[in-house]
Design a protein that fits this description.
single chain, alpha+beta, six-stranded antiparallel sheet, 19 strands, about 50% helix
Length: about 725
């Protein structure tokens, strides 16, 4: 109702009851659909090692925590984990989704959806002789002494046992009667996990939805790093489930082409938000929706508004609650509109960026999208004009790190600043964009800040250097001493060509052997890189610039005008090949700043539009990157190895565990290199490119580790 009311705390003990459930009842309930997933939690699957530990604890009879269900009426909508619902759901999972999903998938041998909306298997192996569980690997699959996938035991215990015994005998192992008896007991105990009992707290069906949402948030705030958007998603799951589904759908669709979406949905899908720059997450959509609907950047404040609870009295203002929810209902269609999203993506490409590799902050994309939506909906800026304005805003934001650090505070300042403009005032919006850029990107900024920002040793993670590459693309530049466009090197629509990447102008091995330089950070300064191809790099080899540069000029520099442009595009000082290394770096940093400034000012003058990249381009790292599991299995990495980012300026405590995972700060555990990098909010390079092995001689990028070969185990 719209009247203010207070939840009676004395009634809390009556809202739930506790019931014991056996594992086979839980698994059957999920399969049949009587236990349903209400999307109260973001998609998430534990690391495989945690699933292994769950089964190990159950096998030993240890307690593994309680589950919590919300008993629902038959007419309440729900969604089963298995996707094979056959009866109406009676229970929705409030707490324990990870455990129940992992149990169901591992025991049934099914795939699950991870937090990136990708399908993955959870296979747990078991060693009957030692009664030990492990995550399935190539080694457990090859060994006759392991049950590679315990799902086979739960599917058919007799067949699984017979297959295991036959495999042992085929491997030459003689089995005595005592062996068979003991193994039979072990198999019986393993199958008996289906009778393991969970205590399940049932929230009764007549409990107020506000209380259900409050219970969920409180439970999941304990021991978890729950983000503010999770609170909002929880609230929407209870009070506006269709909206939550739309948010999830937009995020999921950003990872697939229309063709793939059509295949999955079973009906024609003509458009998806897939793009070369961002794999959308639910938190991104929530942030944009809150900014447009509530004019707020701090999500925890937005959540408090949705709760509409007086902090002093605990009373809930139902009218305010409905008003705030209605703001989000109005904003979501704007945020997920296909034209709005497509034209915004075009704005990023106008700025010269071609793929996610050039964008070092996802928040820059989200915040700039909010600015785009404000200009298009609130201030009615003509689309052609808006594209250029947002392209410049985006470029400025990346260049200055505007949304790095206290991003919510900066977005709120921007929202408040633009709120001073009257609705429909397109000129006022454009003037404010130009004024903000002018006072942010000043002459001093170009003269001092940009060169200083280039004192870095990781060009892939340097926002300024990535802006320089975008500038080369915008200026239609050729690659270093190669008549091939930089935009072709950066274009994600083209197949990858070996060696089309940044290469040292002063070669690494030349510095080590001739100059005696061993400091990797000094060798890999971003001002020492230029985009060229593999063949040019081979020709450069380990030679000094004074040796290889005149040779390249003789072979490829017959056109004086082109050579002049080469010097300009690639920020080459006069007689650069004869300069000392430090002098070369200092001069080149200033020239890189000049090229970047020229492109940015040209963008402001003419708003030149590059062709929009086709839809459905890759957003994730290349699928053929060497995986963490492979690196460990084949001996390139070993338990106890310390990993660091390739940029030594980053201070991260990461170690390869005995389980073949990466553990960061002794707490956070990840199954893949990519997941560990994403935890650190690195999204523009793959984990394989981001991590390096700590060795006595410094840091070795994983590509170099693989090139050297496996280490002796």
């Amino acid at each position: 109702s719209g009247t203010a009311r207070r939840l009676d705390r004395r009634a809390v003990p009556a809202i739930f009851k506790t019931v014991s459930w056996q594992v086979d009842q839980l698994v059957s309930g999920v399969q049949q659909g009587s236990i349903s997933l209400p999307d109260l939690q973001r998609p998430f699957v534990w690391p495989a090692t945690k699933v292994r530990d769950l089964f190990d604890s159950m096998y030993r009879g240890y307690p593994v925590g309680t589950l919590m269900f919300w008993d629902v009426s038959e007419d309440d909508s729900s969604r089963s984990i298995s996707g094979s619902s056959t009866i109406a759901a009676a229970h929705q999972i409030v707490d324990g989704q990870q455990r129940l999903t992992s149990l169901y998938a591992a025991m049934k041998g099914l795939e699950v959806q991870d937090d990136s909306y990708r399908r993955k298997s959870i296979k747990i192996s078991f060693h009957p002789y030692t009664e030990r569980f492990e995550v399935a690997t190539a080694a457990t699959a090859r060994s006759a002494e392991w049950i590679n996938d315990i799902a086979t035991v739960f599917h058919s215990p007799y067949d699984a046992q017979e297959d295991f015994l036959e495999g042992l005998e085929a491997a030459g192992r003689e089995l005595t009667r005592d062996d068979r008896r003991r193994l039979g007991e072990v198999f019986k105990k393993l199958e008996g996990l289906k009778q393991y009992q969970f205590e399940v707290v049932h929230i009764q069906k007549d409990v107020d939805k506000r209380l259900v949402a409050d219970v969920f948030v409180r439970i999941n705030s304990e021991g978890m790093n729950l983000k503010a958007y999770d609170y909002i998603l929880t609230w929407l799951s209870v009070f506006w489930p269709d909206g939550r589904d739309q948010i999830e759908g937009f995020a999921r669709a950003s990872r697939m082409t229309p063709e793939r979406a059509t295949e999955i949905e079973g009906k024609r899908v003509s458009w998806t938000p897939k793009n070369p720059y961002l794999a959308v997450e639910t938190g991104h959509v929530v942030r944009a929706m809150v900014a447009i609907g509530q004019n707020r950047a701090k999500l925890i404040d937005a959540y408090a508004n949705l709760q509409a609870k007086d902090r002093a009295t605990g009373q809930i203002d139902g009218d305010k609650q409905e008003r705030e929810l209605e703001k989000l209902r109005q904003a979501l269609p704007i945020v997920t509109d296909r034209i709005n999203w497509t034209e915004f993506i075009r704005s990023i490409q106008i700025a010269g960026f071609r793929s996610h590799a050039g964008i070092t902050s996802n928040m820059n994309i989200v915040a700039s999208y909010v600015m785009f939506l404000l200009g298009r909906t609130r201030y009615s800026v003509e689309l052609t004009r808006l594209r250029t304005l947002i392209a410049r805003w985006f470029f400025m934001s990346q260049l200055t790190g505007r949304y790095t650090g206290s991003s919510e505070s900066q977005i709120q300042k921007d929202l408040d600043m633009f709120a001073e403009i009257g609705d429909g005032d397109a000129d006022g919006f454009a003037d404010l964009v130009d004024q903000t850029i002018a006072i942010t990107v000043t002459n001093d900024f170009w003269e001092f800040n940009v060169p200083q920002s280039l004192v870095s040793s990781s060009y892939k993670l340097s926002p300024v250097y990535q802006c320089y590459l975008a500038s080369l693309n915008y200026l239609d530049a050729d690659m270093f001493m190669l008549r091939m466009k930089v935009r072709e090197w950066m274009d994600p629509a083209l197949p990858a060509i070996k060696g089309l990447e940044g290469h040292h102008l002063v070669p690494r091995h030349y510095q080590e052997s001739a100059l005696g330089t061993t400091d990797t950070k000094r060798i890999n300064q971003v001002a020492n890189f230029a985009p060229t191809d593999w063949h040019t790099n081979v020709q450069i080899s380990d030679r000094a610039p004074a040796e290889y540069w005149p040779e390249l000029v003789r072979e490829r520099g017959g056109d004086a005008g082109w050579m002049e442009r080469q010097h300009y595009w690639h920020a080459l000082p006069e007689q650069w090949h004869l300069l000392s290394y430090e002098d070369f770096l200092a001069r080149r940093r200033k020239l890189i700043a000049t090229v970047t400034r020229d492109a940015f000012e040209k963008l402001g003058r003419d708003g030149y539009s590059l062709p929009l990249a086709p839809a459905g381009l890759p957003v994730e790292a290349a699928a053929d990157e060497t995986s963490l599991a492979t690196l460990v299995d084949e001996g390139f990495l070993m338990p106890g190895d310390q990993l660091d980012p390739v940029d030594p300026d980053w201070v991260v405590d990461a170690i390869v565990t005995e389980d073949g995972t990466i553990q960061i700060d002794g707490v956070h555990e990840f199954d893949s290199l990519d997941e560990a990098a994403r935890f650190l909010e690195v999204t523009n390079v793959s984990g394989f490119e981001f991590w390096a092995l700590e060795q006595d001689g410094g840091l070795a990028p994983l590509a170099d580790v693989v090139a050297v070969g496996p280490r002796a185990k």
